[in-house]
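pinned: reference chain
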Amino acid sequence: MAISPTGVRPEPASFRDPANRVFHVGDEVLRGLDPQAAQHWRALTGSTFFPALVAARKVCATEDAPPTLVPAATGTPWAAVLRHERIPFVSHPYEWSFSMLRDAALLHLEILNAALGEGFTTKDGSAYNLQWRGAEPVFIDIGSFEPVRDGEPWAGYRQFCQTVLYPLMLTAHLGVDFQPWLRARVDGIEADELRPLFTGARRLRPGVLTHLHLHGAMQQRNAAASTTEVRDQLRAAGFSRELLLATVRGIEKLVRKLDHRPAGTHWSDYQQTCGYTVRDRVAKEQFVAASVAAGARPRLVLDLGANDGRYSRLAAGHADYVVAVEQDPAVVDELYRKLRSEGQRRILPLVLDLADPSPGGGWRGVERAGFAERASADVVLALAVVHHLAIGRNVPLPEVVDWLAGLTAPGGAVVVEFVHPEDPMATRLLANKPAGLFPDYRRDTFESVLAARGRITDRLELPSGTRTLYRTVMGG
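pinned: its structure tokens
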């Protein structure tokens, strides 16, 4: 991300709408508006629905800021500048579980429905317009609001289908995880890609005929027509605001019907099968809590391989925010549902393969920042993770430690658990590998690698004698 001499950093994901652009100045998030966007903002603040949504925490808090805070666009000063609430950790829809994407979709539709009731709409329908405060979704694209024009459809409908509705239908109707599909293309899943999977009786599943087959057919029929021509055709056919409202409510009803409750996986009951004794668990919890609480209060903790969130909850008692990362979408979905029911706003669960984390994507590979670029944590928890990476995924120990160090802010700490080769879980993994493949997977080697990257401040061998915990200040 380019930084101007004044320390203003343009947000790489914000360039597609020339009417408004997001910038970062220190910890502040600012948005420049052109004259028309500024006019829309004034009308928005004078509405009833928008302040109510902000007060209900469904839309990010936003206020006017001095126009001089951000540089002019193409030499023309911004007509207005807004200051937005800062989201603790930016995530991408392909890192969300099924229930997270569905809840984000329902919030977007709720906001759109409220806006239409007062003569506004959203010109975008992208899942990227939503973020999270823990298990609470929040709409962030204030620049998307504009007055609705009678006789016109929802401009964001296609985006909504490709980044929200199609992924939900893929998982709900076919049991296929949507995350790899969304990760592959920043604009989402095209109708042409999904239509071959919904033939025969599958065409009759909720939403498929209307929003996949008919929508795709309309796109093909109007491929050569301009947007103006399509709008004129709809007006002539009697498309009205009332019909638009009915359409949005129909989509909301469909989204509420979509559900996915996968069968249990290996990771679903990991806490019962991982082999910890009661004494091990108590000692581990005490060590983790003390390690997170040591020093200044962490702004951000990463819990890598969070599973059911046991240690994320411990960390949340001593930190401002925790990102709980887990590979299995079913496990993340179950954790999210529990956090949501608790009203948890300081733990964000995400789907992420630690051996294949989210890369940069979109335009020039920077429009959507990779996980490593977003993760500058004060504390990184890597509990019962190293052996899965080193043995299960053949990642050398120095590489694992370098990666952990790269996720840590300057002066931050890594709390890591090393599972000894003789531990039952490590033995099970080694049994599936050729003999002698991992001669360097030893406790002394791991300690020397840690010591070369930072300063080991605390260590604890668990009572079982086959696992050791370390707290290491990286670069210290």
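why pinned: The two ends are 28 Å apart (CA to CA). Residues 122 and 145 are 5 Å apart (CA to CA).
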